[in-house]
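quick one before i forget lol
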Amino acid sequence: MSVWGRIFAAMYDRMMEGPEKAGLRAHREALIANANGDVLEIGGGTGANLPFYSSGVHKLTVTEPEAPMAKRLARHLQERELPAQLVQAPAEKLPFEDGSFDAAVSTLVLCTVTDPDRALSEIHRVLRPGGRLLFIEHVRSENPRVARWQDRMLGINKRFGHGCNCNRRTLENIRSAGFEVDDLANDELAKAPPWVRPLIVGSARANGGAGAP
């Protein structure tokens, strides 16, 4: 783990205060109200989604590959009465059997995974047939001018955003992985730099059997 990785984890909650208060927290609350049954959250970070899981969740499994983030996440899990476990694993290699979960949650994660196609394939694999992927992701802008800025700022953004690829076509990746998007809203990540503002919020169902995109 790099020094910047440890610093980023320590600063993350403070850096996100503005966007959270300006609408991101409300998106989290509305989205995660739809998470029921056996739920997987990938890239749990410091635990920003934890307050919004309801009694409809039978079991919550949260993955987080980065040790500094996982340390903070573990502490926040202990503070809440949730039937939850923390697993330190990357989204591209989930240590779970096919068809293990009813729902998966991804919030501001698919921009940072090393291989988004592999990560989404793994999410699809571990979901039961018809299982839902609930997502909040910032994505490549549909405005060509903003998209060009995203391309120009990519190197800086990846450095200071700890691997954040602000110009990914994440919605296309979700569909290509075998998901049918059944709810979608476009918004902006307020109080964030312009090149990371384009935001999608929605849900998608896993087509076919477990592991069959």
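fyi The two ends are 33 Å apart (CA to CA).
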